[in-house]
Amino acid sequence: MCYRDSWGNRGACSIQMYSKHYMTLVSYSSVGIMIKLFKVKEKQRELAENSNGKPPVKKQSAGELRLHKDISELNLPKTCSISFPNGKDDLMNFEVTIRPDDGYYLGGTFTFTFQISSIYPHGGTKSQMQNKSEKHFITVYHPNIDLDGNVCLNILREDWKPVLNINTIIYGLYHLFTEPNHEDPLNREAAAVLRDNPKMFESNVRRAMAGGYVGQTFFTRCI
Predict the structure, then answer these.
(1) Is 8 a domain residue?
(2) In the UniProt entry, which residues are flagged as the active site (predicted)?
(3) Range of the domain at 42
(4) Is the same domain home to 31 and 127?
(5) Which residue in 4, 78, 108, 184 has the fewest CB atoms around it within 10 Å?
(6) Of the residues 2, 13, 152, 222, which is catalytic?
C-alpha cells in the first residue's frame, strides 16, 4: 500500500523508521552534570579555535555521518549514477539518474531528486522524479509513478529497515523500470493496461518516452 508522506504527497518515497530505546543505569542528576560539563568543554573548545583564527567546525549529525558512510560504500550498476548539485558539502540533497538497459523503459533517462532528513535512517527521505536538464518535474507513463513524479516503492514504506541503505533504495528504483508492478499502482490506468494488454503497455511507454500523448495526457520526452 502507498500512503501520503510527511510532505503530503501520496506515494512519494518516504521513510518512516523507529529506533529502539535502551535503558541506561545512570541517575538523572548524573546525566545533568555530565551534560553541563560537556557543554562547558565544548564552549571552551570553540573559544580556543576562534582565538586561533580558525573557523568553527560544523558538526555533522548522526544522519549525516550515516549517509556519508552509505555514499562511500555505494556499489551501483553502470545504469545508475549519483550527483550532488549543491556540492559534496551537501550530502543531504542529491540526484540519482537511471538509464535502464533492459525492459519496457530501455533507452530512457530518468532523474530523481533526494531529500534526506537529518535523522536518517530513522526518519524521512523524499524522492521525486525530475527532468535534470530543465529542473522541473516530468511525467512518465509508469504504473508505480504518478503524474507529479511521486514514486511508490514498498522498500521505503512497510518493508524498510534501518539496516538498509541508499544503495538499496537506488536498486529499488532501478527495478521499478525493469520490472514495473501493476499490483500496487499510483497510475491505475497504466497499471490496468500493463495487466490486461502488455503489448499495448509497451507501445504506450515508447510513445510517452518519445514525447507525446497517451490518451489525454502529454508525457515529457526522456530518450
Answers:
(1) no
(2) 152
(3) 24-57
(4) no
(5) 78
(6) 152
